[in-house]
Specification:
homodimer, alpha/beta, 434 Repressor (Amino-terminal Domain), Rossmann fold, 3 domains, 4-stranded parallel sheet, 12 strands, about 45% helix, elongated, DNA-binding, LacI family DNA-binding transcriptional regulator (chains A, B), DNA binding (chains A, B), LacI/GalR-like_sensor (chains A, B)
Chain lengths: ~325, ~325
DNA sequence: CTTAATATTGGAAACGTTTTCGGTAACGTT
DNA sequence: AACGTTACCGAAAACGTTTCCAATATTAAG
């Protein structure tokens, strides 16, 4: 059961394959009459061009890849879908690549992905690109956008784009707010990664806010989780015994804030009366949590749109590489 | 900056292209010495075979498509990622196709997607396949799995696989539970679709439970939303005025249950004391909501695994088409 | 009616693989 | 020494397109 190909169509229509190719590619040099005739045959035989052959001939694809690294993050999944929607509207297909293997360099998987699939562009959601060489990304030879990813300072900013938020500043703002409302003993539930990570940056913001208000760092107020409810629940339980005098807690993700809330309720304390609680991300759920969670909003929609549109512009050569930093906004709700 | 190809490698290694092809495809008929030599050259020149050419020649790809239809559903996003993970472990790449266009038949987009991309298999997450013809899916000629999708009864079950849950039964069980605990006036927040939809089936389960307990249907206790917090919040507000004597509400998704909870709290009523609340899905948040939400658990993990593994088996011709119905489990928590 | 210009068209080469088919080399057997 | 095996290898023909180039058909101009 062989599929019908361009030659079949040409034969049936009584024209050359070149002509058929022209009509499917919307070239102007075809008589209207011929075009209609061919179009009709194509319709009738349900001919669909073979993408492999086209891509081979043109030595490129219409595909852009999205790489997501690490543990499952609902935010990324959502962003990916939004990006896909925009890209597909202008004819691109997105290929997904999710990998958990922390031992492999992000750049290695990126390179292989791009070359093997002949991708036209690459979007990395999250991940860290600590040790990437400028040469490496140049060699890939397709536009790359790092969205919500950590960026290596040494990397030449002309060779890639990025879109994200300023994690340090955003974290600063929310714990600054906590300080302003009178809190002195503020705990943090962060992640155990190194400084150059999302969690690391947010932790830095937390510390800067503290020192701005003349509050000394106290180790007992630190705990780590891994972005899951469960880990934060456990972390909060530890915090509650290590630092029983806490009046506020900043969790570096909403998920973790909610996990922490459970631990707080469990010991009979109330939020925000006994302990104030702040999160980060503003996931959909945050506003509907009870009580509604104070948090800092990541502009998910804008993040995705900007990424997708920048990619399209880059692909169409309408733009140089850019680095856009989107503003976050404080969402003061009922947990503080 | 042309990429290095198989001919280059052959030339450099001083062998024929056939030999190089043999080593990259792990054919046995190559002397170990030659193989090593070629492998080394490949490594040195960072040669990666051109997929378009391979696919063209073999007239197939290693890609399987996932189609998601309709409004954003975090459950599907999560499932997709899990499926991707398993499939990629055995060498497949997944291509994503999300479409919102309700006017187009699912089967049409499926067909085009498969043919155009030369997909080896197709997974549909959600969507409805009401008017699909057996012939149509046969013609696609690749294994198709409908996961959490509605199935057309007229469709020959030998030509496709499905994995899902029994929505009617699951809904029955949870509202049956509500009845057993003494509730008589039970509202529902469902979706406005036709009977042959996820929402429709769950509504049927609700009604069957009611009639089993001799409770008459009363129209004022019905409201519709669209799977969002907001819509359910609004729906619940309406319910509260239309049917002020309600003692329990069943929302056909957890998201909607949580949206409804906000409306309930807003009028000063408490859950579950004044009104009991039940959801559906058991999304991660459900257990961490305050109070933890009673719901019915969809076996997300198993659903994804089953789908992925069935697809692999189908692709390797190790299995016939199957229809698996996974069990749901009641999660009785604190809202009832 | 010729000629020049222009609008359409088809042939064929190329894109980078895989695979068939036959060929050479090396070896063990008589 | 001649032969049959076996192991290994290369040439070349596909796969289904796109596109350059030359060829033909059509129209405009003179």
């Amino acid at each position: 059961m062989k599929a019908v190909n361009i030659k079949d169509i040409a034969r049936i229509a009584g024209v050359g394959v070149a002509t058929v190719s022209r009509v499917i590619n919307h070239h102007p040099d075809v008589k209207e009459e011929t075009r209609q005739h061919i179009l009709q045959i194509i319709e009738e035989y349900k001919y669909i061009p073979n993408n492999s052959a086209r891509y081979l001939k043109r030595s490129e694809s219409n595909d852009v890849g999205i790489i997501i690294k690490g543990i499952y993050n609902p935010l990324f999944a959502e962003m990916m879908q939004k990006i896909e929607r925009i890209l597909s509207q202008v004819g691109y297909t997105v290929m997904l690549h999710h990998h958990m293997d922390m031992a492999i360099r992000d750049m290695d998987v990126a390179q292989e992905f791009v070359k093997e699939k002949r991708l036209k562009g690459l979007i990395c959601l999250g991940g860290d690109f600590e040790d990437v060489q400028t040469e490496e990304v140049k060699r890939m030879n397709v536009p790359m956008i790092l969205t919500s990813a950590l960026q290596n300072e040494a990397l030449d900013r002309k060779v890639y784009s990025s879109v994200g938020i300023n994690n340090e500043v955003a974290a600063f703002e929310i714990v600054n707010y906590l300080c302003m409302t009178g809190h002195q003993k503020i705990g943090i539930i962060t992640t155990g990664e190194h400084d150059q990570s999302i969690g690391g940056r947010r932790t830095q913001g937390y510390m800067r806010a503290l020192s701005t208000h003349g509050i000394a760092k106290v180790d007992e107020r630190f705990e780590v989780g891994d972005y899951t409810f469960e880990s934060a629940y456990l972390a909060m339980k530890r915090l509650l015994v290590k630092a029983p005098d806490l009046t506020a807690v900043f969790a570096i993700s909403d998920i973790m804030a909610i996990g922490a809330a459970r631990a707080i309720h469990e010991v009979g304390k109330s939020i925000p009366k006994d302990i104030a609680l702040a999160g980060f991300d503003d996931i959909d759920y945050a506003a509907y949590y009870d009580p509604p969670l104070t948090t800092v909003k990541q502009p998910l929609e804008t993040l995705s749109e900007t990424t997708a549109e920048l990619m399209i512009a880059l692909l169409e050569d309408r733009s140089e590489h850019e680095h856009v930093m989107l503003p976050t906004t404080l969402k003061i709700r009922k947990t503080t």
